[in-house]
Amino acid sequence: MNNGSIIWWTLLFAISCIICYQDINKRTISNSLCSIVLFICICLVIRSGNYSSLYYSLMIFIVGFMLFMKKIIAAGDVKLISSFFIAINQNYQLLVFTIILFVGGLIAISMLIYKRIDGNYNNKTMTVPYGVPICIGCLFGIAASL
Predict the structure, then answer these.
(1) Which of 35, 75, 82, 133 has the CB geometry, 3.0–4.6 Å to 61, for a possible disulfide?
(2) Within 10 Å of residue 135's Cβ, how many Cβ atoms?
C-alpha cells in the first residue's frame, strides 16, 4: 500500500463512519454519500489499473435492484455495496460477502436479544442497519486489494 492509496482508503473510512452513523440513527443511506464512495472507488480502480471487478459490481447492482423491487433489501444498501465493490479485487469478494453476512448476523442477533430484554418493539428500530456491516466488510476488502 503506497501513500496515495492510504489517503484514498482513509477518505473511504471517514465517509464510512458518516454512513454508519446515519444508517444507525435514521436507517437511511444518502445518495450523495454513495456517490462519494463511488467516486473514491473509481479513483482507486484507475490508480491500480485492475478493472476486473467492474463486471461484478454491475452484477451486484442488478441483483440488488431485483431484491429491492421484491422489498428484500433497501436501495441505499444496494447502491453502497455496488459502489464499494468496484474497488475490491475479485479474489477477495467472497471473503467480503462472508464478513458482511457475519457482521450483519451478529448485529441482528444482538438487536433481537436487546429488544427481547427491553420489551420495546418499535418497527423502525427492529430493522438492521446493514450499512454498518457493508462498510466494515468492504473496507477490509479494499485494504486487502490495495
Answers:
(1) 82
(2) 26
Q: Look over the chain and give the mean of its residue pLDDT values, rounded to a whole number.
A: 89
* Averaged pLDDT, 94-101: 95
- In degrees and rounded to multiples of 5, residue 143 shows phi and psi of -60, -40
Cα–Cα distance measured from residue 90 to residue 32, given in angstroms and rounded to the nearest whole number:
26
> Whole-angstrom Cα distance, residue 46 to residue 5?
11
Q: Give the global pTM.
A: 0.89
CB 100 within 8 A of CB 133: yes
- Looking at residue 142, its amino acid is I
Please check the confidence at residue 122 and state whether its pLDDT lies above 80.
no
